[in-house]
Write a structure and sequence with these properties.
transferase; D-amino Acid Aminotransferase, Chain A, domain 1; 8-stranded mixed β-sheet; 484 residues; OB fold (Dihydrolipoamide Acetyltransferase, E2P); 5-stranded antiparallel β-sheet; nucleotide-binding
Length: 484
């Protein structure tokens, strides 16, 4: 699939007062800053991550879809009792999605989610039956469930919430009432994850995907969800797929009419008929003045001409644009100066553009750019990841044995102490010493894999014991059937 276009955010941008209210609700639930996008951001995979991460920690891996990252927020209006669904962009903009209903239970569709936030990506997906390109939302994490943040939980438990308590009731609703759901703006799928010693299966199945995938995402099992850059969340791409977002500045040459006298103001002018230079600018951070103003205000402020600001940007390189590409760009009638473009570096060092990223207000920060270039220079290949699988599996199984051993030792210690208290004349009604909260959390995060995969049913909005909330992965033994 060669189409690398990204969906526009569906729905309608919320009014400022509504958006502020929603931001406040999200900040209260997640305990984050109001004007801060609460989503997690990965770091580029480098060679050091092979041994410092994959061999030392438990990870789950999924393919990296080439789409538009957004959070999905479901909230019930306390005054009208009306359910609202919203998409949150990386620019922390809120868009209302009409008509959606996300039931809390597979058996009772009347109860809706309220205060639930899931993480995912919008992609263009080609329906294998109808061959129609449609928008889908791929869920891969969960931040909150029913007004309660779950970011402190490990990945297994967060995925359980997203899979069993959010996606399954939605899927059952679509299955039973397809006609009522057919006009919804997009469909939802749950992105399957598997252990990193089965990466070869992910690569094998990528060719069967109905959307573009350009790499892998590796998420640590035992760490919480981090708002902002998460150093344990890894993004792997083959070197040829590593891209950087730059801001484009068009520089047209000046034409000098030597037939006119030097003092004539019309003697020199910008020649818009020839191909300009496409300069790539890298972002140094910070907001430029008037960054959020409307097009109308910009034109008024600049005396009738729209001008892009390149403040907080430095010139980085130049984009290679062929004459044929320039002709296509001109025929489109669009404006290109000041837009964010996703680019990649060819083997000869030149830069080519893949697409415009109008969903982004700024390009990649200079620090991110340097890390991506390091990832390209220090590239880990697909074959190297596959070759490491036996070591990853051996380390994974060794950690599981150590966890089971520690669990058994803890059980024996508590059992021995409880018997010792009775034997030495202590009050038999007195309970054994409690396990420290920190130790309990660590113990919960270190459950054996077979316990993690235990299936637990959910009835309505009933509370499920924390120790039993675990995601079920099919491990890519079979690809899930295409969901309607």
């Amino acid at each position: 699939m060669n189409d690398r276009s990204v969906p526009s955010i569906p729905g309608t941008r919320c009014l400022p007062e509504v958006e502020l209210y929603l931001k406040q609700q999200v900040a209260l639930i997640l305990r984050t800053r109001v004007n801060h996008f609460p989503g997690s951001q990965p770091v580029s995979f480098t060679r050091e991550h092979l041994h410092n991460n994959l061999l030392r920690k438990d990870y789950l891996v999924c393919e990296k879809s080439d789409g538009l990252r957004v959070l999905l927020f479901v909230l019930v209006n306390p005054d009208t009792n009306e359910e609202g669904s919203f998409l949150i962009s990386r620019e922390n903009e809120y868009y209302h999605i009409p008509d959606f209903h996300f039931p809390r239970s597979e058996k009772d569709f009347d109860i809706s989610h309220n205060g639930t936030i899931v993480d995912g990506e919008l992609v263009y997906s080609t329906n294998p039956v109808t061959k129609v390109k449609e928008v889908r939302y791929l869920i891969f994490d969960c931040l909150a469930m029913d007004m309660n943040s779950v970011t402190h939980k490990n990945l297994w438990k967060r995925l359980y919430h997203a899979q069993h308590e959010f996606h399954k009731p939605y899927s059952e609703l679509r299955r039973k009432f397809p006609d009522a759901c057919k006009d919804w703006l997009f469909k939802l799928d749950f992105k399957n994850m598997t252990q990193p010693f089965k990466i070869h299966k992910i690569f094998n199945e990528m060719r069967n995907l109905t959307y573009v995938s350009d790499g892998l995402i590796l998420t640590c099992c035992d760490t919480p969800y981090i708002s902002g850059t998460d150093p344990t969340l890894l993004k792997w791409k083959p070197s040829e797929e590593n891209t950087i977002d730059f801001k484009i500045k068009l520089e047209f040459p000046k034409y000098i009419d030597n037939d006119l006298p030097k003092h004539d103001p019309n003697r020199e002018y910008t020649n818009y008929d020839v191909k300009p230079k496409f300069k790539l600018y890298v972002w140094k951070g910070g907001d430029a003045p008037h960054q959020h103003e409307s097009v109308e205000l910009n034109i008024k402020r600049n005396g009738g001409e729209f001008k892009n600001s390149f403040q907080n940007y430095d010139e980085w390189n130049e984009l290679d644009v062929s004459d044929e590409q320039w002709d296509k760009l001109k025929k489109s009638g669009e404006s290109f100066n000041g837009r964010i473009a996703e680019c990649r570096q060819r083997q000869n060092g030149s830069w080519e553009m893949l697409r415009f990223r109008d969903d982004k207000m700024n390009g990649n920060h200079i620090n991110v750019v340097l890390k991506i270039l390091k990832s390209i220079e220090d590239s880990v290949t697909k074959d190297e990841l596959i070759e490491l699988e036996p070591q990853v599996k051996a380390r994974w199984e060794e950690r599981e044995r150590m966890k089971r051993k520690a669990q058994q030792q803890q059980h024996d210690f508590v059992h021995h102490n409880s018997h010792g208290q009775v034997h030495h004349g202590h009050n038999p009604a007195k309970p054994p010493p409690p396990v420290a909260v920190g130790e309990k959390r660590k113990h919960e995060a270190e459950q054996p894999e077979q316990n993690k995969r235990e299936k637990i049913g959910v009835e309505g909005s009933e509370k499920v014991d924390d120790d039993e909330e675990f995601y079920e992965s099919d491990g890519f033994e079979e690809m899930p059937s295409y969901k309607n």
